[in-house]
Amino acid sequence: MPALCTTPDSSLPCSAATDDASSKRLSWGKIMQKLTDFSNHSLHSDDEHFRNVFSHSGLDSVDSVSLSESDFLYDPVEETLCSEVVDLIEQSLTEAKDSALRCSKLLIPDQLMEHIGQELLHLAASEPCGLRGALINLCVEQSNACQSVEQIAVDPDLVPTFQLTLVLRLESGGLWPMIQDLFAPRSPSAPILRHALRLNTGFRVIKKKLYSSEELVIEEC
Question: Span of the secretion signal (predicted)?
Answer without folding.
Answer: none
